[in-house]
Design a protein that fits this description.
Four copies of one chain form a homotetramer.
Chain A lengths: L3 E6 L4 H11 L4 E7 L8 H4 L16 H7 L2 E4 L10 H6 L3 E4 L9 H8 L6 H5 L2 E2 L2 H8 L4 E3 L3 H15 L9 E6 L14 H4 L4 E2 L7 H13 L6 E6 L6 E8 L7 H11 L6 E3 L8 H4 L5 E8 L4 E8 L7 H12 L15
Parallel strand pairs in A: 1-2, 1-3, 3-4, 4-6, 5-6, 7-9, 11-12
Antiparallel strand pairs in A: 7-10, 8-9, 10-13, 12-13
Family (chains A, B, C, D): Belongs to the NAGSA dehydrogenase family. Type 1 subfamily.
Organism (chains A, B, C, D): Gloeomargarita lithophora Alchichica-D10
Function (chains A, B, C, D): Catalyzes the NADPH-dependent reduction of N-acetyl-5-glutamyl phosphate to yield N-acetyl-L-glutamate 5-semialdehyde.
Chain lengths: ~350, ~350, ~350, ~350
């Protein structure tokens, strides 16, 4: 099979370099274009010298015409608000687009505009985008041409919640998501609070009660529950590079449920889904288990003292939470095995 | 004023070395005895060489008679279940005892035995112990002879919850405590899961639904609320040395409450309490702010989307969560200013 | 091609789990046996739950007969001194053995006994062992049946020094190796000084002037130079999980040499060696570049102020410094491409 | 005694916040002015919220007239090249100045200009500056009005080397300094390579053969040796917040010297110097021992295999390597005990 030519736009960020790494190891893909504005003109190996023996490629200024001439598949890893200036053009010229920003994740453009403060005129295009969480929207991904890949927090949170919501097992207003992220989630741009000297050996909450990922999570929760769901979402910054741990709390409707019942329900829900692993009773995931892989690990407990279920999910925020998931979506859209070119085992420790 | 002679028993652990550090810097205390069983016979400076220029002292085998002959104040920093073999003797000989283990924190010996699996025959002694959380039990600490100092998780959780419970502002069954601890909370004994190679760059939950600090927290919550309170408590291990962050969620009874209202309530509650600082609106604490100090920082938010209050507290688990708090209790018991000999400002970063 | 059955003995340590990970991803190998004494009887997935979806295997007590019945290739990842009790048997029964301990690295059993304090009676077997540093002993590895794989410090140090010594460019008595290691080099056994609470945010030297890796380095330096060479070797413990950085200093004989000259010499020396990458001028390696790969990155500088060359090498201590190198040796011994089944690109950051 | 009014200029950086912390705890000093250009107009507690309960102070634009009106002692913690625009004015108006930049460390302005690329016209002022390393230049510090405080690398390196050079014990051309620094040495400004995501779990060398601290070190080595000395200096970035470890190698002239001899020489040299502690034989310092203190710990070994002495020094780069040393210089200049207001014991771990 001839390899499919692929472009990565926004190549110098962490999403970009993960995409490059995955594409170089993917049997059906060929990297033909790296684009970026701040890094245009630079050798990619000058930005990431560890790739110098594998990749000789200059970052090009972003130009939809050039991209469409070279690539059939385009991954966009850009700041929010930039993709809408490229996507209509790319689609018109026959490209398949996987966008890693928030721009094509929302069904309701009004919600997007409220939370992101960006005017949008491409509502018709956005309406056709598929939400790229394959465990929940697999059918829509087959042959999809525009995929809005979810953020890292929603991925971890929704995989923890989905079986509960789909089966109506918990009180709709009882969901608390206490999420913890490594600092790479904040990107590669220099920001004071992400300096090692600031962020190391310290944990803190941020965006309490008003983080942008809350409406994204609620949109999908609504799909799963078949009715609006409000969630409490609190992100935290953890002194580590990669990984998200989401600790999710909800009140069960039926106090007779046990941990074993719920594990069976979760195992059934995720059967045949290679990127989610439900752990044995009493085992809760460590984010490091997922480091460098596309896995999501889930552990859970039903607490009879409080009639709450606690579900804990762990992913690598840059893979299952970003670049890996985008490749997983591509695999599904093309009919390839879902695991193609994606790492399953971490180099623990 | 003649300095008061002080003993530290269990000196080689993290609680012990913090106590040593604090006593050396305290104007009214003199360190006269270091005890420990596993380290008996060793020069303390061989265990902690960085103290070698300040302290020349051999660790002695633990013997209540010897301790009582030398010291008026005794800090016990021992594994759970050991203190009851020493405390009745020490008290009988006139010592004042500050115990850092769980042994003298529980009013109900039955609850202690259930959770710690240790038989106790010193119920009469235990009944006289004061729970050493000065912001809540200050009056009882004056002239106290036996203080059971709280654990690090309860300290952070209870300081976050106290104003809400005392004033009955939240639904009793709605409290979720998602707590995050540095690895020094696990002590200095070599355990595989606390190795840097295991714990670094990874976060995980443990003891979900069944951690021993839950009944301790519920005992004090009951005191504050004047009725039984059940809490959800989930501890996490965070890749950092020191610090606890507790993120506490509760449903407010009156949906008209605002963040500003709650901040006023908290400021009033903690007025005149030098070791708690309520942060301005929109500011949430970082654990590193408390590093090396006896401070507890509190930030909060009322989320009108869910009618939940989220309170976030940060302490240094080895100071306000352990040794510092014990010295604070001693200060109060003796009528000294509460801040005597305790550090208020971290060496940030 | 039928896959070759492989045994890993000492599977529960860090060397072992890396080997398992690599074997699971190697196209020509099949993992048929996991052995270990302390973990015998345990499900491997109970020790490393992140592997539970890929591996169902109980760790067996170590028994050379059982191993030889099941496996053709045996990796030994055991404490020093244990392998000699197994290796003669394994070889006699036709196994090919790759030993990761120090036991088969020394040509002179006297030196081994001096530094390791272990009596040896298998001198004849040891004499046939090949030193498993493929960039220097590739020819001897072809069809080798017993390979003593080098330690992580010698690998990083020798790859930095080899071109200088082979060509006689530096004064024999001028070599200083200042090496820095992550804590996983100390293994997975619980030791106080490797606790996160102790090792994090601290760097220290150890074994100054008397580390066991010095005679191992000097043995190979002697081979390269054709005469005895003494080196100064100082290891340091760095607050990170993986990686070794060796900063090597030596006085050049010809003060006319330039950085560019030396880079050409290094590039020529390592041409065709896929696991060593000589970096461009002015670029010095970061250990994280090698994380999770079998690469060795080399950067160098000739300082005209002092007429010293400074060479800096970076590897992942558990891969190129341990398990990866063992698989590289296996690949060569079997005539497979040297890169088979080994990762080349890190998941930076 | 009335407290002396003190100004800190460049207050928002790491040097600045350490100075603020130390001044707040110093019995003879009163903080009266915080200056800074990038942070002018901000409440200091908005930059460092953990200080909000102790300090209510707005950062003012830098103006020598205003400073001189308010303060008798001025600490300058500014980027290189800024101080010369302030210092002559401040001195003229009677202020005593402690400069933490490189601007007043060099006796030879030509060397400064070569390495820093900054033209200087205040040679006459610079000529009167005292190099603020109290263990070597104590007499000159008494009543000094302008002190150029040394950088963190020179402090650690020179305290390790001083006894060897003063007594002529080592070959002048044999000195290699392999130094390792935490990332706070790079300051608080946002730089990509100092992000936690980049710098964590990685160690690397930089400025190999051409770091600005080399000529500074050589100037003082020349003073000590009484003749020019060339050193090899290689700095490394270590994944930790604070601390410098310098591993120093030199060839001894007299091969009969022993470790014990050298320890005696070091103890004699540093007798009566409260901020240097020579460790017992076989003990080498960990940087964490010095964390949060003004201590320098020294360990050493004479290696009879190579006739080299290896001296290892550890300091907190922001205290003994920066702000603490400046306060130590002030103490000496005013005739106060050298330890006044400076921390001696770390909050280990």
């Amino acid at each position: 099979m001839a390899k499919i030519p692929v472009a990565v736009v926004g190549a110098s960020g962490y999403g970009g370099v993960q995409l490059v790494r995955l594409i170089l190891g993917h049997p059906y893909l060929e990297l033909v274009y790296l684009g970026g504005d701040s890094s245009a003109g630079q050798e990619f190996a000058d930005i990431y010298p560890h790739l110098g023996h594998q990749l000789h490629c200059v970052v090009e200024p972003v130009d939809a015409q050039v991209i469409a001439r070279k690539a059939q598949v385009v991954f966009l890893s850009l700041p929010n608000g930039v993709a809408p200036g490229l996507v209509p053009d790319l689609l018109a010229q026959g490209c398949q687009v996987f966008d890693l920003s928030a721009d094509y994740r929302f069904r309701d453009m009004q919600i997007y505009q409220t939370w992101y403060g960006i005017e949008r005129t491409d509502g018709a295009v956005a309406a056709k985008a598929v939400y790229g969480l394959p465990e929940l929207y697999r059918e829509s991904l087959v042959n999809a041409t525009l995929v809005g890949c979810p953020g890292c927090y929603p991925t971890a949170s929704l995989l923890a919640l989905a079986p509960l919501l789909r089966q109506g097992l918990v009180a709709w207003d009882s969901i608390v998501i206490d999420a913890k992220s490594g600092t790479s989630g904040g990107g590669r741009q220099a920001k004071t609070h992400l300096l090692l000297a600031e962020a190391d050996n310290s944990i803190s909450a941020y965006g309490v009660g008003r983080h942008r990922h809350r409406p994204e999570i609620e949109q999908v929760c609504g799909d799963l529950a078949g009715q609006p769901v409000k969630v409490q979402f609190t992100p935290h910054l953890v002194p580590m590079v990669r990984g998200i741990l989401a600790t999710v709390y909800a009140q069960v409707r039926d106090p007779g449920l046990t941990t074993e019942d719920l594990l069976l329900i979760y195992q059934a829900f995720y059967r045949g889904k290679p990127w989610v692993r439900v752990l044995p009773p009493g085992v809760y995931p460590h984010t490091k288990w997922a480091w460098g892989t596309n896995m999501c690990y889930l552990g859970l407990e039903l607490d009879p003292h409080t009639d709450r279920v606690i579900v804990i999910s762990a992913i690598d925020n840059l893979l299952k939470g970003q670049a890996g998931q985008a490749v997983q979506c591509l695999n599904i859209s093309r009919g390839w095995p879902e695991t193609t070119g994606l790492p399953q085992l971490s180099f623990y420790p």
